[in-house]
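Hi everyone,

Forwarding the result from last night's run.
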Amino acid sequence: MLDFLKRILIVALMAICVGLILIGGRAEAAENSINKETNEWTFPAKGEISDVFDSRGGIHKGLDIAGKYKSGVYAVADGKVVRSYYSGSYGNVIFIHHDNGYETVYAHLNKRIVNEGQKVKKGDKIGLMGNTGQSTGIHLHFEVHKGKWKIHKENAIDPFLVFGKGEIGQYVFALNHDPYGVVNVSGKLTVSETKTNNAARAFIGKNIEVGI
């Protein structure tokens, strides 16, 4: 009887291990797919990461970039503006549907400078960073959806899967696929970038957006 129970336990443990391997393989395949589909994208804003995906008990489905008031916000890839309006929660917000089926969201803008139905190119300035809607500080709330945006955000994915892993307090640059700083051949930030980084930390505070 004891041997029989041991065999059952061993089989169960092996099944769990195989299941974990399969789940890990699927997750890695999904991440590789995202990387392939978005490897030409560029980062939408310059500033400091002030909040990350799935924070606040999992309800925060975007990435927050705290930056300078009225600084530029840019389209991450070619696409079509499917919404451009004022929302009670998002404030001034723009939704862009991209050619590969993804949608991106740019919220709490001071100003929208593109209209619904307008086609945009990667790197086009689409708005200015602000503090509109349910927001308590100047920042961009940026979302990525693998498919269309939905009210419950079941298609939302972590922007770090597109642009690489970052952390709160880290400075980011716009218009590069790697937003954490363009490096020279020595692997160091250029002098101008280093100065920009240090200066930015002097005026960018932690901004917390609510209700999204």
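The longest helix spans residues 2-38.

Cheers,
N.
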